[in-house]
Write a structure and sequence with these properties.
The chain has about 425 residues and is of the alpha+beta class. Helices cover about 45% and strands about 20% of the residues. It is built from seven helices and 14 strands. Strands 3-6-14-8-9-10-11 form a seven-stranded antiparallel β-sheet, with no helix packed on it. Helix 3 runs antiparallel to helix 5 and helix 5 packs antiparallel against helix 6. It is flat, with a radius of gyration of 35 Å. The relative contact order is 0.08.
């Protein structure tokens, strides 16, 4: 808007000079001035929105209202990539799902509490494991009441009150179960809407950019034709009146695209914050890959480590976790060929098999894994005559656990690494 205002101000200045020397009419001057004032009226509205947003951010940060320090211009902001294969388990971080889950757990507990009303609170066993006096005196008399200790009694039959409480608790449990299912469905719907919005805004931004370019050329050619007398200034006015709103719309669509990224982050419960952090200072066309934030069911979790070479630390080998039948697969995609990761068991314990597949490695020099004080060393040596030699040693014991396909090397982690205490496995590899 400021750039357009400056352009229109220059037009007003030129037309006033032309009018002064009798080259244009007063009407042309006022047309140019109307363009200028139209652009000038936009700027205070934008500045008001900026001030309100900055004040809101300052308050959220616990500061007094005031301006927010600026960084890169909007044209230099990189869009963090949304990685493929994000597991649905990251939605468990959403507060609405967590709340619905806890409500369901509480409803189950209420069923148990209601059913417990059927039973008296007594000691079933006495000293040395024998039946207690409370238990032997439980059914005394013909009043059909719990009686023990001579001082505490509780009726067996309460006119269906206890049974009603149990039924009520069970109904509440069903309601909370449906609410939990609904929360999950809403979460998937939010993710779908956010991903579709991002795709559509991306396409809309590209189309709007082409429109702005076309209108810019239209305005440029209209001015040239006006200068040589082929067109009236009305044509120039129409061209510039279309260009300015198109530029504003372009910026709004770009902001909507950034907003869709925020919606994806929010709908996923903050599940890919690491990707956003890593790609904030990288070019948009080459965003930083990142680890899977949360492993899928029965899959181990991984945390990537920086590459061994300092000059390549901004491009670690990409790591993804997936399922392949009964096995969990840690896929490593070569970026610089040197790196490492820590593999951790999910909450339910290690799966039956954990396979490490290294993709895109032309000649894997070494692979090492360490867990619980044991170290696995693997080497892959090419020979001029005969097949390549694979060699893996755990301590002093050779293991045949490395294979090679057309696209990747595969190492099957030894069973002794997948312990019940869920000890993490440290991995390192080099091409």
């Amino acid at each position: 808007s400021k750039r357009t205002l400056a352009t229109y101000a220059e037009s007003v200045r030129i037309f006033e000079l032309r009018f002064k020397h009798g080259q244009v009419s007063q009407m042309n001057v006022e047309q140019a001035r109307s363009q200028y004032e139209t652009a000038a009226a936009q700027i205070p509205q934008i500045q008001l929105q900026i001030a309100q947003t900055e004040n809101a951010i300052s308050i959220l940060l616990g500061n007094n209202p005031g301006p927010i320090p600026r960084g890169k211009p909007i044209t230099e902001l990189a869009l963090p990539a949304v990685p493929a294969g994000l597991p649905s388990q990251i939605l468990e971080r959403r507060p609405d799902i967590a709340q619905a889950e806890q409500n369901l757990i509480a409803a189950n507990a209420q069923i148990g509490a209601a059913k417990a009303l059927y039973y008296p609170t007594i000691s079933l066993t006495g000293l040395f494991g024998t039946a207690s006096a409370d238990l032997s005196d439980l059914f005394k008399g013909n009043a059909r009441v719990w009686s023990f200790g001579g001082s505490i009694t509780g009726p067996i039959f309460t006119g269906g009150n206890i049974r009603g409480q149990v039924a009520q608790a069970e109904a509440a449990n069903k309601a909370n179960l449906l609410a939990y299912q609904s929360a999950i469905q809403n979460a998937f719907s939010d993710v779908e809407n956010a991903l579709v919005s991002r795709q559509q805004f991306t396409e809309q931004l590209a189309a709007q950019e082409r429109l702005v370019h076309a209108l810019s050329e239209y305005a440029r050619l209209a001015i040239k034709q006006y200068d040589v007398g082929y067109e009236s200034y009305t044509t120039v006015l129409q061209a510039e009146q279309q260009l300015f709103p198109a530029e504003l719309t372009y910026v709004q669509v770009r902001a909507s695209l950034y907003g869709s990224l925020v919606s994806i982050y929010q709908s996923m419960g903050g599940g890919w914050v690491n990707i956003a952090e890593k790609s904030a200072d990288t070019p948009a066309k080459a965003p930083e890959p990142a680890k899977s934030p949360e492993a899928p069911a029965k899959s181990p979790e991984t945390s990537a480590k920086a590459a061994a070479q300092p000059e390549r630390k901004n491009s670690p080998d990409r790591i993804e976790v997936a399922l392949d039948g009964d096995a969990s697969v840690v896929n490593v995609y070569r970026v610089n060929g040197n790196g490492g990761a820590q593999v951790r068991a999910p909450k339910g314990g290690w799966p039956s098999q954990v396979l490490v597949r290294l993709h895109g490695f032309s000649n894997l020099a070494s692979f090492k894994a360490t867990a619980g004080g044991e170290t696995l060393d693997c080497e892959f040596k090419s020979t001029q005559s005969g097949p390549s030699q694979r060699n893996c040693i755990l301590g002093s014991t050779p293991l045949d656990i490395m294979t090679r396909s057309a696209t990747y090397y595969q190492v099957k982690l030894p069973a002794m690494f997948l312990t019940s205490d869920r000890t993490p496995v440290e991995m390192h590899w080099a091409d």
